[in-house]
Amino acid sequence: MNLPAHKKMLSAAAAVSVMLITAACGSSEGSDGGSTTPAATSAAPTSDAPSADPATPDAGVGAEEAGYADGDYSAEGSYSNPGGESTVKVALTISDGTISKVDVTPEATNGTSKQYQTQFAGGIADQVVGKSLDDLDVSKVAGSSLTSKGFNDAIDQIKAEAGA
User: Fold this and answer.
1) For residue 143, how many other CB atoms are within 10 A of its CB?
2) 92, 73 in Cβ contact below 8 A?
3) Tell me: the pLDDT tens digits for 119-158?
4) Which of 41, 39, 63, 60 is nearest to 51 (CA)?
């Protein structure tokens, strides 16, 4: 098929746009040197088990079903980065078996690491509030992929403390 020159240019421009978008979204290394894996996103947790009584609505996952006691927990997680070893403090509240509040306190002494931890702290609530501890799969938040290792280390400690 013979297309006019202006349509060929539009087709070429569209192809280049698609390639640039794909390249930008498909980066395999984060800006802080770690590999990036898109953070898992999912809808609110649901129960696959049907109710014992069809007339009784499914109440969802509660604290007893999830195996974690409701309450306030905190832990420090550590991880390695190009600036050395860093720690991050994680405090969270579990209510009805799900995380209802999370606070991450940057503790890095290296300027770059502290910057990434601060970015991570600003975006983590959107990733974890409303999820159970067992549903967490944090890999990269707000451009920081290495801080998640310290966060996940702290979450493992909190799981043990909360009684899984």
Assistant:
1) 15
2) yes
3) 999 999 999 999 999 888 898 888 888 999 999 999 999 9
4) 60
Sign of the C-alpha dihedral computed for residues 24, 29, 30 and 33 taken in this order = negative
Full-model pTM: 0.60
Give CA–CA dist 80/22, Å, rounded: 30
What single-letter DSSP state applies at residue 29?
B
Q: How far apart are CA 57 and CA 17, in angstroms?
A: 49
Contact between 158 and 90 under an 8 Å Cβ cutoff? The reply is: yes
The better pLDDT of the pair 17, 144 is held by 144
Query: Measuring CA to CA, which residue among 108, 111, 143 is closest to residue 124?
Result: 143
106: tokens are 């940057």
